[in-house]
Design goal:
By secondary structure, this protein is an alpha/beta fold. The chain has a single domain (3-274), classed as Vaccinia Virus protein VP39 (Rossmann fold, 3-Layer(aba) Sandwich), CATH 3.40.50. Helices cover 39% and strands 20% of the residues. The chain has helices at residues 3-14, 23-34, 57-63, 74-83, 117-127, 147-158, 165-182, 210-222, 232-236, 238-241, 243-246; strands at 43-47, 66-70, 92-95, 138-144, 184-198, 253-261, 266-275. It has a seven-stranded mixed beta sheet. Strand 6 (253-261) and strand 7 (266-275) form a beta hairpin. 39% of the residues are buried.
Length: 280
C-alpha cells in the first residue's frame, strides 16, 4: 500500500468515534450544503466524505434525491452509512478507492535534499490533466476539508523543504478546483470547505466569540498565520488569478468562517462557493 493511502486509512480509523464532538462543525457544514437549495437541485456529491462524521446523511436525503460519497477509503464510507443506518439505501451511492489527486502512483517520496527536476516536472504535468469525475456531474459538489490533506500529501511526497514546493502547491490547488467545477453541472453549486489554521499556531482560537472570529482571523492572515496554500484571500480570488478556474465559474464567494473542535486542536474553517459555467 502506498504511504498516502495508508495515512488516510489510519486517520479515518482514528476518527471513527467523533460524531458528538463534531456536532457544531457538522451543523455549519449542513447549513451550507442544504440551505437555499432550489427545486432543480436533485443530486449532491461530497468529496472527502470519509467516516461522514461531519455530514448528516439523513438530512441530505431530505433535500436531495441522490447523495454520492467519494473517498479514497472505501472502509470509511461503509462505516459512514452503517453508523447512520443507511447501508441499505440505494440513493446513497458510495465511490470508494478514488484518489482525487491521482498521486497514489507516485508511491515513493522524492529526495528533498537532492531535488530531481524531472520528477517535479512530471508531477506538474500530471496536475495539468483532469481525470473524469468520479460520477456523473451533480447539482451540488462539495469538497469537505480535503484540500488541506492533498496539499499535505504533496509536501510529504517531495519534502517540506523542497524549493519547488510552492509551485506544486499552487498546481494542486488549481487542479482540485478545476476538477470540482468539472464535476458540477453547469449552473450548479461548487463548494470548497477547508481548514485555514488551527489552535496549534493560534492558541486563543477556541475562546474567541463567534461574532469576533472573522476579524480575529483576518489579523492572523495578515501575520501570515495560515496553512500553506490556504490563504483565504488567495482562495477567494482564484477565479481572477487563474484563467483555468475563472472560465469554469462565475466568481468565488466566501462564507463566514467557523470553528471545528477536532479534539487535539481546534480548526478555523473557511468555505467558498461558486456557480459553474457551461464547459465548452
Amino acid at each position: 500500500m502506498d504511504p498516502y493511502t495508508e495515512q488516510q486509512l489510519v486517520r479515518n480509523r482514528d476518527c471513527r468515534n467523533t460524531w458528538q464532538r463534531y456536532a457544531e462543525h457538522r451543523h455549519q457544514v449542513m447549513k451550507l450544503l442544504c440551505d437555499n437549495v432550489g427545486n432543480d437541485c436533485r443530486s449532491i456529491c461530497i468529496w472527502g466524505a470519509g467516516n461522514a462524521n461531519d455530514l448528516d446523511l439523513n438530512r441530505l436525503l431530505e433535500v436531495f434525491a441522490e447523495v454520492h460519497l467519494v473517498d479514497l477509503d472505501q472502509e470509511a464510507l461503509l462505516f459512514a452509512v452503517e453508523q447512520q443506518s443507511l447501508q441499505e439505501t440505494p440513493t446513497v451511492v458510495l465511490h470508494g478507492g478514488v484518489d482525487l489527486l491521482g498521486i497514489t502512483k507516485f508511491a515513493s517520496p522524492l529526495p528533498a535534499t537532492q531535488p530531481n527536476t524531472a520528477d517535479v516536472d512530471r508531477l506538474l504535468k500530471h496536475f495539468q490533466v483532469l481525470a473524469p469525475p468520479p460520477c456523473q456531474p451533480c447539482d451540488v459538489v462539495a469538497s469537505v476539508c480535503l484540500l488541506s490533506q492533498l496539499i499535505e500529501a504533496i509536501a510529504s511526497l517531495v519534502g517540506a523543504g523542497h524549493p519547488r514546493l510552492p509551485e506544486l502547491v499552487t498546481a494542486v490547488r488549481c487542479h482540485h478546483l478545476q476538477r470540482l467545477f468539472q464535476a458540477t453541472r453547469p449552473g450548479g453549486r461548487a463548494i470548497l470547505i477547508t481548514e485555514i489554521l488551527s489552535s496549534d499556531t493560534f492558541p486563543t482560537l477556541p475562546a474567541i466569540p463567534q461574532t469576533s472570529l472573522r476579524n480575529a482571523l483576518a489579523q492572523q492572515i495578515n501575520m501570515r498565520n495560515f496553512y500553506t496554500g490556504l490563504n483565504p484571500a488567495i482562495l477567494e480570488s482564484l477565479a481572477e488569478r487563474e484563467p483555468s478556474i475563472g472560465r469554469l465559474c462565475n466568481g468565488i464567494a466566501a462564507h463566514p468562517p467557523w470553528r471545528w473542535d477536532f479534539g487535539p486542536r481546534t480548526y478555523a474553517v473557511a468555505a467558498y462557493e461558486a456557480r459553474t459555467r457551461s464547459q465548452k
